[in-house]
Amino acid sequence: MMxxxxxxxxxxxxTVVELLVALGLAAVVFGLIVSFFADMGRSTTTQNAAxxxxxxxxxxxxxxxxxxxxxxxxxxxxxxxxxxEISLTGDGTKVRFTSDSCNVEIGNSxxxxxxxxxxxxxxxxxxxxxxxxxxxxxxxxxLYEGTASQTWTPLLxxxxxxxxxxxxxxxxxxxxxxxxxxxxxGEIRTVLITLTVHEPAGRxxxxxxxxxxxxxxxxxxx
Length: 222
Hints:
Elements: H1 4-12, H2 16-68, E1 83-86, E2 94-98, E3 127-133, E4 138-143, E5 151-156, E6 159-160, E7 169-172, E8 190-200, E9 206-216
C-alpha cells in the first residue's frame, strides 16, 4: 500500500525540472535523427551526381572515339581524308578530321546507313571538328567548320579540359610518343581523350569524374 507521502508525490505529476530535462533529451535525440537523415540525403545526392558525371563523361568520350576511328577513311584513295587540324597548345582542345564515309550530300534528307565511298569528303558528317569553348565550358561538335555549311551543336557541358594538366586531346605517333609540332599531324596514329565532367550535387557544390580512352586511328598510316 502507498503511504501518504507516496500518494502526494504521485498526485503532483512531473516537476518543471523533470519536464525540462525530458524536453532537452528529446531535442537532442530529434537533432541527431535530423542530422542523420540530412547526411544520408547529402550522401545520396553526391553519389547520384557522381554516377551521372561518370556516365556523361563516358558517353561523350565513346561518341568521339567512334567518330575518330573513321578519320582518314579513304577507300578510293582520292578523297584526301585525314587529320586536318589539331591544337597542341594550352589544353589541347581541338581536332578536325575527315573521312570518305557517306555518299549523301549535305542538305539531303537521306541517311548513310549503308554508306558508299564517292571519292570526296563533301558528304554528310564527313568533316567533323571537336573544340572546347573555355568561356562556356562546353565541348562543341562542328560539322564543316569554316565553310558555308558550318553547323555546331553542344556535345557536353560543364567540362574541365585538362584535369591534372592532361590535355583534352593528346596526339601520339606510331611509337606512342606525343606529337609536338602541328605540321606533324600526318604522323598521328593514336588520340588519347581525357575528359572531366562536373555535375551539381546540391548547395552549390559539384562532383567531378574523369574518363579517358585511347583511340587507334586504324585508317591512317596504312
